[in-house]
Amino acid sequence: MHAAPVFSARQVFERHRQAITTGAWSELSALYADDCVVDLPFNLPEPLHLVGREQLRARFQAATNLPLELEMRNLVIHETQDPEVVVAEFDYFGRMTESDRTFTVANVIVMRVRDGQIVASHDYHNHAIMAQFLGEQPGS
After folding, report:
1. Which domains does the chain have, with CATH numbers?
2. pTM for the full predicted model
């Protein structure tokens, strides 16, 4: 019997990117460890601290209803001396599907991956721009 492959930090980030850009929100939480910690210090109206896969699953489930498409552009992935840590810089190019309005948001993610799962992530997104566009949607 063969063990399932264990993905590197870079490979896990690539799977994360693929899930977001294809809108596979239901698959995204499986990339995280049961006891993961995710911090979004620039979240509005206050920083967000998520603990555990279940909190992330609920957050990603809510995203399935957003009229939003995201594409990562200008992606630069920095592999560090620590094989568990990867740093990604990129811009989200977002399109609101109901209005066809677009926006660009700068991002940096510092992700720690252990045994092929995300155990910690610090996500630095410009939530002010995202909130401005998402807030314009009816029922949001």
Report:
1. 9-134 (3.10.450.50)
2. 0.87
